[in-house]
# Entry
Amino acid sequence: MGYDLHITRRRHWTAGGADIAASEWLSVVDADPELQIMRDASPYLAVWTGSSKAETLWLNWADGVISAKNPPPKLIDKMVAIAKGLGAMVQGDDGEVYESGDQPPRPYRPSLAERLGAFLQRLRPTPAVVPAIPLPPFGVGDRVTDTSGNIAVITAIDPRAMHGFGSITARYDDGRELTFAMFAHNLRPLDDKGEKR
# Structure
């Protein structure tokens, strides 16, 4: 995987708007002798030749942002210089701002609107996930048999019980009343003659 750094004009690099245009990026590359577009790979992927010959470092423009994966400090410095020329900044994946490859980044500070939005999101109830459990082949009042051959009458079926897994309640002829999960009841309906259907 890896950790990316982004040259952006946005408050947070993932937000919309305030794009760096592809043409702006290509103009930066054309004006900088240390950057070369790798046209055979991508029309916006540039290799930085200002690094040592032993490693290949690249920058790529996509969706209004210029990014590099796991950049070393010297590439971070290059990104900061490019960002200044574009009226932008360098941000990490988590929104922290880099001003140099030799200094720790400033943590991202969400705006009041972002904090309020996150707070309101936490207040919203999350919808319950209801599993798709099929209804049993019998209804309330029907006679059923279990795997041991015991006969019972269904007294309740609630598809929303047990956190959406549903429940079936059966009263046996000996007076016991048991509740089963709808997905694992092992009950079979009986016809009017007491035969399994």
